[in-house]
């Protein structure tokens, strides 16, 4: 079969690694970036995109979300985490099935593609249905099954079995766009036995681990009461931590725990909008960055955010660090761009494939239109306009694995209106089941 | 002349005052809302808008900005307030002229209209040029000239003269869309004599007052050192405060000052993105709301934000209060909607004309398209989807004073591309003058 080629002309490239001076042409051959230079010939190229008024950057990487929960957007707000979870989210989740999760994941995929995210890391249930949505949408994903055993041995075995089945059936499928991780839910919902078993299986299989840690003060208190240790101390003490563990939230950390994270090269997924909206607290991100810890970004589920816009999330992250430290120089726009791209790739162990614009890497690329009021003037620092002025709606082209998923704001792989209709129907049915 | 009529059919109305149940038709006659009911006939109506998939709400009111500074978007970021102002903004401002301010104001007006703001309150220089931009764009504005005397008597007289001339030339012009306020810059840049003279002239003329107060800790320290009183104590002691004073920022307030604000019925403009970005601090908004103080919202200039998206500003306001109080129930989405609409109208003394959807009020109306991924599902609380999920790009129609300024995302009064071109040229010229 002949190569499939796309040539992007005259793009200003914003990249977290190599700094390309001036405008460049970029050639995509099949799933890869094959050339970046001054003037690439358009002869024999299948498609040419004019990016003269556009900024080209790596597709954003959302390292912590629950995509099917997009169905629960706006279902319950302005509530405590307990009321939100116990009285609203869990009763709805009790009636979920694979079809509903598929509908929610497709709705979320539309939002991700439209706002420039090409890779997401998910933890939820009915993950094979989420994989189906990933396969169809053309997006890239790391999927983990959210394992909860509350100390029950039968449940533990079944949960691990479920995550392993997901691995067997889905890992490296969809042209390699899907990877599967373990998803032990958290140190307070997964037993010590479960966590130790996951560690052992991770070492055997090479599967990485996605977990929630230290989200709320209550969690710190509960884990401390039960284990006599704070969450990261406890996880360290049972040998659970390592460079293959990505921890979401990490709001309440003391200096010893930051040292534990650093020592184990644990990866962080920062979720500022969710932490603010649920009043969980402010994660000490600038301190983590000072310690050269790998901090990536995630939106958490749309039900506690309430959107999946990674640019908005990065602006919020930056502004929140500045005001909470009273230092306007922390978490600069360049650092935020890195957090949303290459750090996400490192967190997921995919830094050889994605997270930056480099020859040989996967063609996960977005174009942002600069010809809009909120992006002008555009003669100063590009990263500033992206992080502080833009939002996801400024993205006009999204390419993943060399495939165009959106061009000029029109989706190519998914039928938006059909997905909206199904998502509306799904949430109505779920509400009726309560 | 015959009446000009616009009929909006089948709209779901989100309103901070009267609660309309179900979908309604709304009739605009000239500049006013003339009827809201179940089924209004389209016969003899000049234009009909189908709002079946849309949410109708009052145009947003931005009570503190510097519109011409939109030219300085992205000029300097990740700096301390001093470096930002002294080394970057002030040197650029030294070369401003009326043409540049006009270009910047038009650029800002495009952004405001596109993101659903119909009224802004401005404080800057070359305000007659800003008035020209307001006149042409069809937006509504309260304009004040930023008076700074640093205790110099000649300068003081000239500054007051300038603000009074603006009043004489522009107040109640543009079909009543422009009002003029006094704009003493702040308690640390305007002398006690200037503030007292403004108070006297405000009482004589009925002009209201727009001022920056208590933005940074440095200001508190400086005013305390000079006056022996904190800023609000000082302003109260010289009889400056009253219900006609709108104070921007108000970050650093102790309980006595909150009491002073309440006693004087002073109006507040909260500017969370700017306060976060410049690391000024977190204003105690939930405490002000508990005290029934009128809190409205402003973006500040685009140079410290870096956009003019009021929906983003309201989300940030809500999330910041939740996390800083560790209480997820404060600043709900309904309160945020009020902050962005009716409270803004009250702050500007325009609550009889704008800020809510009611028969007899000015037709300042926006429509938000619900048929977009980030707005689905849309069956729960409307205000939640607007505040927590949407951003300005979801606005598809903007009407001010009965005139359509944008329909289906297309501007009707302004030439976007021409304005972008001029704004880009202006900033290049200003940079070359440094």
From TrEMBL, chains A, B:
Pathway info: Amino-acid biosynthesis; S-adenosyl-L-methionine biosynthesis
InterPro entries: Amidohydro-rel, Deaminase_MtaD/DadD, Metal-dep_hydrolase_composite, Metal_Hydrolase, MTA/SAH_deaminase
Amidohydrolase-related domain ranges (all copies): 55-404
Name by which UniProt lists this protein: 5'-deoxyadenosine deaminase
SUPFAM superfamilies: Composite domain of metallo-dependent hydrolases, Metallo-dependent hydrolases
Cofactor(s) annotated in UniProt: Zn(2+)
Gene: dadD
Binding site for Zn(2+): 64, 66, 212, 300
Note on cofactor: Binds 1 zinc ion per subunit.
Family to which the UniProt record says this protein belongs: Belongs to the metallo-dependent hydrolases superfamily. MTA/SAH deaminase family.
Superkingdom of origin: Archaea
Record text on subunit structure and interactions: Homotetramer.
Known function: Catalyzes the deamination of three SAM-derived enzymatic products, namely 5'-deoxyadenosine, S-adenosyl-L-homocysteine, and 5'-methylthioadenosine, to produce the inosine analogs. Can also deaminate adenosine. The preferred substrate for this enzyme is 5'-deoxyadenosine, but all these substrates are efficiently deaminated. Likely functions in a S-adenosyl-L-methionine (SAM) recycling pathway from S-adenosyl-L-homocysteine (SAH) produced from SAM-dependent methylation reactions.
Keywords: Hydrolase, Metal-binding, Zinc
Catalytic activity: adenosine + H2O + H(+) = inosine + NH4(+); S-methyl-5'-thioadenosine + H2O + H(+) = S-methyl-5'-thioinosine + NH4(+); S-adenosyl-L-homocysteine + H2O + H(+) = S-inosyl-L-homocysteine + NH4(+); 5'-deoxyadenosine + H2O + H(+) = 5'-deoxyinosine + NH4(+)
GO biological process: S-adenosylmethionine biosynthetic process
């Amino acid at each position: 079969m002949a190569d499939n080629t796309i040539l992007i002309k005259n793009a200003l490239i914003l990249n977290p690694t190599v700094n390309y001076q001036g405008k460049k042409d970029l050639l995509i051959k099949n799933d890869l970036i094959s050339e970046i230079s001054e003037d690439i010939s358009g002869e024999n190229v299948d498609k040419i995109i004019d990016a003269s008024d556009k900024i080209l950057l790596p597709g954003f990487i959302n390292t912590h979300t629950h995509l099917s929960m997009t169905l629960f957007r706006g279902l319950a707000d302005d509530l405590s985490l307990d009321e939100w979870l116990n009285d609203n989210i869990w009763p709805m989740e009790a009636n979920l099935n694979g079809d509903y999760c598929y509908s929610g994941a497709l709705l979320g995929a539309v939002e991700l593609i439209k706002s420039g995210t090409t890779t997401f890391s998910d933890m939820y249930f009915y993950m094979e249905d989420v994989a189906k949505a990933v396969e169809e949408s053309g997006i890239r994903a790391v999927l983990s099954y959210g394992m909860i055993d509350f100390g029950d041995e039968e449940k533990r075995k079944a949960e691990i079995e479920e995550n392993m089945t997901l691995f067997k059936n889905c890992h490296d499928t969809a042209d390699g766009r899907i990877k599967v991780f373990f998803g032990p839910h958290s140190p307070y919902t997964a037993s010590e036995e479960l966590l130790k078993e996951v560690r052992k299986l991770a070492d055997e299989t090479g599967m990485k681990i996605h977990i929630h840690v230290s989200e709320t003060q209550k969690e710190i208190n509960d884990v401390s009461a039960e284990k006599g240790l704070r969450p990261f101390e406890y996880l360290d003490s049972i040998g659970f931590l390592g460079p293959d563990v990505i921890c979401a939230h990490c709001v309440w950390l003391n200096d010893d725990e930051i040292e534990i994270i650093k020592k184990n090269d644990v990866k962080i997924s920062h979720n500022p909008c969710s932490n603010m909206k649920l009043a969980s607290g402010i994660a000490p991100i600038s301190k983590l960055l000072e310690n050269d810890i790998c901090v990536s970004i995630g939106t958490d589920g749309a039900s506690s955010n309430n959107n999946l816009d990674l640019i908005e999330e990065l602006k919020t992250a930056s502004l929140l660090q500045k005001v909470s430290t009273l230092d306007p120089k922390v978490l600069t726009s360049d650092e935020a761009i890195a957090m949303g791209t290459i750090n996400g790739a490192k967190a997921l162990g995919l830094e050889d494939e994605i997270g930056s614009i480099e020859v040989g890497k996967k063609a996960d690329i977005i174009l942002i239109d600069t010809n809009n009021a909120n992006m002008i003037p555009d003669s100063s620092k590009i990263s500033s306009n992206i992080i502080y002025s833009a939002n996801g709606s400024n993205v006009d082209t999204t390419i993943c694995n060399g495939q165009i998923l959106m061009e000029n704001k029109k989706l190519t792989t998914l039928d938006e209106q059909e997905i909206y209709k199904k998502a509306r129907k799904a949430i109505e049915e779920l509400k009726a089941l309560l």
